[in-house]
Structure formats: structure tokens, C-alpha cells
Amino acid sequence: MAFIDFTQKNMINIPEIDDQHRNLFAILNKMHAATSEGMEQSAIVEIFNDLIRYTVEHFETEEIQMKQYDYPKYAAHKKEHDDLTNQAIELQKLFYDGSATVTFELLDFLHQWLNDHTMGTDTEMGEFLCEQQ
Ligand SMILES: [Fe+2]
Ligand SMILES: [Fe+2]
Prior knowledge:
Number of domains: 1
Protein name: Hemerythrin
Family: Belongs to the hemerythrin family.
Number of helices: 4
Pfam families: Hemerythrin
Bound molecules: fe (ii) ion
Helix content: over 70%
CATH class: Mainly Alpha
InterPro entries: Haemerythrin_Fe_BS, Hemerythrin, Hemerythrin-like, Hemerythrin-like_sf, Hemerythrin_metal-bd
Order of helices and strands: HHHH
Radius of gyration: 15 Å
Domain Hemerythrin-like: 15-126
């Protein structure tokens, strides 16, 4: 069983965004597997960097679509994206200078965040976008 499963509950019915979410879940699974297997920290941090890079791209996709259709909850949604991005950048700094390592606690936090955000904030956005298209 995968660490995080992409299920019907995570689908928001916007194919481009669902594909990106599926990819995000896959990268998080890869990061979890690497941690469980006791892979070298530098290799795990590489996967974390991929996750952040892809997440930032994904957030941009959503933000462009929200702006395009004047989504009324854009600001609150973007704040959730920005808060996570800022936290991730802070962590990246700690990983680079060796003062922190990837832990299962971090993986659990990302698991929770992705699930909550896709099933809550993104689903709400998806309902709005589906009505516009
Ligand atoms: Fe999303
Ligand atoms: Fe989002």
C-alpha cells in the first residue's frame, strides 16, 4: 500500500489539475519510500526539492485559472499556497546547512496538507471552475 493514495475523493474534475495532483502524490510516495529504505539524506532532499519545484509549478497553474475566472476566494487560496511554499523554503535552508533532516513527521505533515488541501480548498475551487467552463 502506498503512503498516500490518490483516490476519487482527491479528484476535482479539472483534468490538468487532477493530473498534477496525481504526480504530487507520486513524488511524496517516492520521498516516503526513500526515507523508509534509509536512503542517504542528500538523495531524499533531492526528492524533496523535486516536490517543491513541482508544487510551485502546480500552484501557479491553479492561480492562473482562478485569476482567469475571477475566483472570489482567490486571496485565501493563494495564502494557503504561499504559506506552504514559505515553510518549504525555510526547511530547504535547514537541509542545505545540515541542521535538519527529513523526518517521518515532515512526511506526515505533507500527507495531511496535500489531502486536506485537495479535498477542501481545491475541491471548492474545482466546483467553481467547472461551472465557468
Ligand atoms: Fe492543488
Ligand atoms: Fe490549491
